[in-house]
Amino acid sequence: MLRRNFIRQSAMTAAGFAIFAGCKTNRMIPISSVNSGTYRFEEIRRGVGYFEEKGGTIGWSIRKNAVSVVDTQFPDQAKNLLAEIDKYHKGQKIDLLINTHHHGDHTSGNIVLKDRIGVHVAHENAINHYKRVAAEQNAMDKAVFPTVSFSDTTRFEVGDEDIRLYYFGPAHTNGDAVVHYEKANVAHLADLIFNRRFPYIDKTAGANIQSWVQVLDKVLHTFSKDTVFIFGHKGEGYQVTGNVEDVRAFQNYLEKLLEFGQSCIVSGRSLAEVKAGTVVIPGAEEWKGDGIGRSLDAVFAELALE
Q: For the chain, what is the radius of gyration of the CA atoms?
């Protein structure tokens, strides 16, 4: 049963927009940053922060008597996250759990939180993909699926923090949620941003590079220069948090990837030839290291369909 003083539901429009209204006087509490050598648990501002260990970066908010979590990595990492949360809320509910999309490095830890989840939400496409992949992998017993879905946007209040979810269109998948902690002005972009790391572009789940560029336009128009962004992944030497310039930099990577893919196809170069001879995308040289083949596979597949 939900802690009704901190999160409750009321109907709104026919489009399915929902508000969860919470206690307006719920106080902040001091949060201690932890860098264990294995994981990092760090407040950004106003009781909102991130957890970084293995897999997609976790977001969280901790108030006097209210907690939200964005993504769960893997079971061992979810246990470490709970250990930190339990310093402030031992054994209490996670009022709101959000999965930004269905990939296992963002959802496999759900099972650790299973008995503590209040409301569990994701985009409707993400839930469908999660169930499909779990069935394909014979892993239904290891999955904990969101029970609340949204299509375009929805809003929650957890404690005195307003949390709005957005879906801006196909990008990394066709079910990527953006989570905005409005009062803290912290936006969790999850795998919409791979900060100086070659991205995974999941064509099996509706990913679209050209749409992804437009999605990031919507991100840039929705949030301000003062917004702190949490990213799903980062390259070596970079951070899992950043600003609008980091968003623009990744958008540029996608644009240059499209330009490069198109030029290769027009010149008659095969995918195998391009993969053998390409280590960076021209015009986006900050993206380097392993994984460029994933981008090349995806851009050739997408442009070949046009």
A: 19
